[in-house]
Amino acid sequence: xxxxxxxxxxLLRDAIVTGLRAKGFDVVGACNGVEGLALIAAVDxxxxxxxxxxxxxxxxxxxxxIHTTMPHVRTIVISGGGRLDGGFYLHAARDLGAYAVxxxxxxxxxxxxxxxxxxxxxx
Length: 123
Prior knowledge:
By secondary structure, the protein is α/β, with parallel strands linked by helices.
């Protein structure tokens, strides 16, 4: 099952993609929401890991678009916070339909377990 990792932080995105591939997941990466939505459709991804704060289109907009146009795609939202408490944005993501949320810094083992559960749910 294809997974799309969407985050504008190149180092973090590449580290997560590499770490998840090492755990056996089929992952592609996108640097912003616009690119991510196109990539999800192009590769028929079933799970999207989405950062909240990105240029072009923020994560909340991405989640809303996914749930409107691709309701079969499960979203896991990640966030480091921002100017307000990070929990606020993660809660907002859940309200928009995110399957799961995870605060940064990302524990790759925890994310892997979250993905395994999501894959089992989506299958």
